[in-house]
Amino acid sequence: MTVTSSPPALHTSIPTYDGGSKLEQSLHTIGPTEVDHRAVSAPYLRIVEQRTENTVLLTQWDFRVTQPNVKRMSTATAHSLEHCLGVFLREETQSVLNVGPMGCLTGFYITTVGMGGYDSMADALERALRVTTTIESVPLANDRQCGWASDHSAEAAARIASDLLAFRAEWHQVMAK
Question: Nearest Cα to 72, choosing from 99, 38, 102?
Answer without folding.
Answer: 102
